[in-house]
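Posting this for the archive.
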Amino acid sequence: VLLDGAKGTAGGAVVRAALAMSVLTEQEVTIDRVRGDGPHPGLDTEDILLARALARMTSARHSPLVKGAHSLTFAPTRRPKGLRSPIENDDDARRPSASVLAAALL
C-alpha cells in the first residue's frame, strides 16, 4: 500500500492510521511526503516511537526511523505481541504525548 502523507490534514494521524492498519492487515505500507504540506514536514518523535513499538511487537522490517524523514516503509512479519521493554526516545528535546501513543497502540 502506498500513501501520500501530504494529503488530508498532513498531520500525524495519517502516519498513525497507516501503521495501525499495516499491523492489523499484516501488509507493508509506504508513506511518502510525510506531513509534506504541513508546517513541520517529515517524521516526528511520536511517529518514530510508535513505529519502534509496533516494529518490536510485529518483528517488522522498516526504513530508517529518522526525525524529519519524508518517507516511511513499514512491513510487519507477524501478528503483534505485547511490549515487554521500554522504547528508546532519541529526541531529548521533545517528549511525545503519552495519550497519543497509547491511543495508537490500542
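The chain is about 35% helix and 15% strand. The mean pLDDT is 81.
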